[in-house]
Amino acid sequence: MSRYDRHQTRLILPFMGPFYENFAKPLAHLGLRVVVGVMLMMEGWPKIVAPFAQAGFTESLGFYPGWFWSAALAVMQFVGGLMIVVGFLTRPVVLANAVMLAVTLWFHVTHPYGDVFLSPEGMQTLSENAALFSEAGLANLRADGGALFLAQVQSKAEDLSLLWTVAALFLAAFGAGPISVDRTILKREF
Question: Model-level pTM?
Fold first, then answer.
């Protein structure tokens, strides 16, 4: 028994202990694992369909050869996401994905979307395709040339990448949880 197993949180309402241990914690763990895995599968599906499409992008980040890393990214996201959903070999798979997600976070922070999306040509295209937007949306975009919208898009990219990375690191640290192939069939984890 490790020191972590011996440590028991003293609850203000001790009668809630069995509920937390036997219901809330296992389902919360399963929920997080399923959400992370399904999101990875959704992001990975287009890459599985075209496994070498990210070759130029991966090389632009310094990962050579691009064809290898593009295909590895596809498999890691889609197949890895499926493995995370069912809780099979969870720690190594989710750790590999956590590293990839940390690189994604780094990319969003160091390569902001910038004014390239707010060029005069882009704003002209917006005006020419006004039917695609509500009047309120157009008014907001035109008021500041789209700067607030762009800041929101950048913030969401960074915030979601951070949240997703931390969720993956949580699963890497704590494993698959009790409702998983690792614990129910294999009866062991990495």
Answer: 0.81
